[in-house]
Design brief:
The chain has about 425 residues and is an alpha/beta fold. The chain contains 14 helices and twelve strands. It has helices spanning about 5-20, 25-30, 80-95, 115-130, 150-165, 190-205, 220-230, 255-265, 280, 320-330, 335-340, 345-355, 365-390, 390-410, and strands at about 35-45, 50-60, 70-75, 105-110, 140-145, 210-215, 235-240, 245, 275, 290, 310, 335. The radius of gyration is 21 Å and the shape is globular. The two termini are about 40 Å apart. The model has no long low-confidence stretch (mean pLDDT about 95). Bound molecules: nicotinamide-adenine-dinucleotide (NAD). Nicotinamide-adenine-dinucleotide binds next to helix 7 and strand 7.
Length: about 425
């Protein structure tokens, strides 16, 4: 059986959402394809003196609501179809939270784990130059994604500044603080998970002090979500990483677990906890479940055994469409990734705003702006869900595609 391509999945979600929207068929036709797909092949000198040709892509899905925006991924599995899907999802995520961006994505097919820092630097600098004709602070603003981080963004910025007329740090986000990064960026996605989880609890009439949470994945998103939820009074009873999970019904201390993981390499082995598998972790009794590791972990097999009343998707795509249907029928509230993990891109936007102003904000101000944007977006998606009697995922798509379609229609076709 052939596997459905990522772009096919994105189009299916798009088609489902437009059933609820009054959308001009001409605009539907436009939005079913990205505006631009750039593929580049470029040589890099490897450390051993050999030359290797790499392939990279930058896909610009739609810029009706503002400049293109989206990360750059380094992974052996990167291909044009996946980058197209990710570009569409970025446009949707930005439109869900109402920030003035379109959507884009980039990637290079490579295995960064087998490359030296010098090779990665040459790869990044050359890719930056190759895609520079379509990049710019008011045109298309890249950011980090899988296997790219602050250092990659710093090399990218430096190459653009040296090799083009663009001199503004606003050409890329996710930069180190010293190069114009924003305070609050590191915690932004986990903070968004905490904020949307709290909104969900409130709408369900549940106090954070009476709620329990389980978190899969203890990297950037999972660990920050855990300790910020704990600060709000939620009892975090189980967490996991790639080596397995730990469970303590009385509650953990999320920051101490993070320190333990930093020292020992895993959450597993943290004192006074029961060791469990990642499969068992997802099925623990709790109020809030935060999958914050991989895609596709909640599927048709385990969805029926999930005991949480709310799932807050920290990871991208952790719930399969078949699982969604089972969770819906069981009355489990799923806060979709395009809303729950949009804190990262929202603070990227705030970084860009600060760069354009050359005026930098306190962490408190960044966090307050983030909360304002996400809480408003949550309320709007909630209202759409109630009005159309659909789940939060379909509601978020309705909000986003309606916004993009209206902007595209207003701009007209020429
Ligand atoms: P990370 O690399 O910092 O952490 C990933 C964590 O998942 C690690 O603790 C790892 O041990 C764990 N993990 C790996 N395999 C696992 C398995 N089989 N079972 C359980 N845990 C496993 O990554 P991150 O930045 O925290 O991103 C996590 C997810 O959130 C990804 O889906 C990512 O695309 C998504 N996301 C991240 C951001 C961000 O700003 N970092 C923004 C939006 C979405």
């Amino acid at each position: 059986m052939s596997k459905t391509s990522a772009y096919q999945v994105a189009l299916e979600q798009f088609d489902k959402a437009i059933e609820y929207i009054d959308i001009n068929p001409d605009v539907t036709q436009i939005l079913r394809q990205p505006n631009r797909e750039l593929t580049v092949h470029f040589p890099i000198k490897m450390d051993d003196g050999s030359t290797k040709v790499f392939t990279g892509h930058r896909v610009q899905y739609n810029d009706a609501c503002g400049p293109y925006k989206g990360g750059i991924r380094y992974h052996p599995g990167v291909n044009l179809d996946e980058v197209k899907a990710l570009a569409m999802w970025m446009a949707i995520k930005c439109a869900v939270v109402g920030i003035p961006y379109g959507g884009a994505k980039g990637g290079i097919t490579c295995n960064p784990k087998e490359m030296s820092q010098d090779e990665l630097e040459r790869l990044t600098r050359r890719f930056a130059i190759e895609i520079s004709p379509i990049i710019g602070p008011k045109i298309d603003i890249p950011a980090p994604d899988v296997n790219t981080g602050q250092q990659t963004m710093a090399w990218f910025l430096d190459s653009i500044k040296r090799n083009s007329a663009v001199k503004s740090p606003a050409v890329i986000t996710g930069k180190p603080l010293i190069l114009g990064g924003s305070l609050g960026r590191t915690e932004a996605t986990g903070r968004g998970v905490m904020l949307t989880a709290l909104e969900a609890l409130q709408n369900m009439g549940m106090e954070p002090q009476n709620a329990t949470a389980v978190i899969q994945g203890y990297g950037n998103v999972g660990s920050v979500s855990a300790y910020l939820l704990e600060e709000q009074g939620v009892r975090v009873v189980g967490v996991s990483d790639s080596r397995g999970g730990i469970y303590r019904p009385e509650g953990l201390n999320a920051r101490q677990v993070l320190n333990f993981k930093r020292e020992s390499g895993s959450v597993v082995g943290y004192p006074d906890t029961e060791r469990i598998t990642n499969e068992e972790l997802l099925e623990l009794p709790c109020n809030i479940l935060v999958p914050a590791a991989l895609d596709g972990v909640i599927d048709a097999d385990n969805a029926g055994r999930i005991k949480a009343r709310v799932i807050v998707e920290g990871a991208n795509g952790p719930t399969t469409p078949a699982a969604d249907r089972i969770l819906d029928a069981a009355g489990v509230l799923v806060i979709p990734d395009i809303l729950a993990n949009a804190g990262g891109v929202t603070v990227s936007y705030l970084e860009w705003v600060q760069n354009l102003q050359s005026y930098y904000w306190s962490e408190e101000r960044v966090n307050a702006q983030l909360a304002e944007i996400l809480i408003e977006a949550f309320a709007q998606v909630w209202a759409i869900a109630k009005e159309n009697e659909v789940n939060m995922r379909i509601a978020a798509y309705i909000k986003a595609i309606d916004r993009i379609a209206r902007a595209t229609t207003m701009r007209g076709i020429q």
